[in-house]
Fold:
Amino acid sequence: MIREIIPIAIREVASGTRVLDWTVPNEWNLREAWIKDLRGKTIIDFRQSNLHVVSYSAPVSGRIGIDELRSHLFTLPEHPDWIPYRTSYYRETWGFCLSHNQLREMTNPEYEVRIDSTLEPGHLVYGELLVPGASSQELLISAHICHPSLCNDNLSGIGIAAHLARHLLSVQHRRYSYRFLFIPGTIGAITWLAQNRNNLSRIRGGLTLVCLGDSSPLSYKRTLAGNTEVDHAVSHAFQHMEEKTETIDYVPYGYDERQFNSPGFRLPIGSLMRGRHGQFPEYHTSADNLAFVHREQLASSYEALRKIIEVLEANRTFLNLFPYGEPQLGRRGVYREMSSANHDHQLALLWILSLSDGSHSLLDIAERSGFAMETLRDVAEILLQCGVIEEK
Ligand code: ZN
Structure:
């Protein structure tokens, strides 16, 4: 479905492949999963909701007494209509998830149970797209894809990443290259890092995109270092947005930013989100559905992400070619190019000339002066064209 939006490459890595300290596990495939009463009436069927089966369940088939069956049934008594989402990746077992109300109705002494699944050598599958730019330096955008039927925690990040990629593909000039990853959480990031560990110096920074459709304020989790270009770019974009935003420090919990920031890699990858990992009641339940995410929130998350990208694209470092005193701007045609009535632009121009000594980027100048990057970018472009500054 992502390929209907953007031309990702689909990559397969065989089960058993060593990836960093891990091994790509067997592939799980599920054909049928149900519980029926002894008269053949279906009580639970994964075709109604794929959350009904504990992901990675081993096969099981036969008549099971309710007491034994209960130890394989998972519910949320505090939300009796919701179905929990559970996995058992690294311990071989089986189970069903159901609403607590459904469990209450299971009063028979025995049930017919079937999970027709296979756990066999296969592949870990992920999607990747490189959108090339003028520079081989890359910004990495990563979304987890392991449980896409959950709408906020999962599908929202996939959707926004895919639409950002589509937008970038349509833009005439891109300064950076953009690498998009659609990977299963944890093992996917570890696999990608293992396969690309010799090419990581091209990663300039990036973001994981998670939980971007609910009504919590837009939030940014900093990179582990906390003061990288991405951190400054998000901070700048947030300051110049009308929406209420929050920024939190790095914690080694959440999504794949933990793998990217780990000591051996230290890639400066932050995380853009609304609801936080594990902190909203709908998290990892059937209530994380289309009703829980909102068009307006998705749209404004997307706009914020585009703003962040624009800031990064605009963040160049210039050298004032006339650093001794102030250059005579009129003679160099600068005022012809600028509306001289615009006092703001005059001041922005003086800030750029003052700080363009090669050690301050436009983002540094934005932070020092309070100007928006768009203004500085436009004024710098004029100075560049008039030969007053050059890119370092
Ligand atoms: Zn999740």
In short: The chain is about 30% helix and 25% strand. The longest strand covers residues 110-120. Residues 2-16+124-314 form a domain with the Aminopeptidase fold (CATH 3.40.630.10).
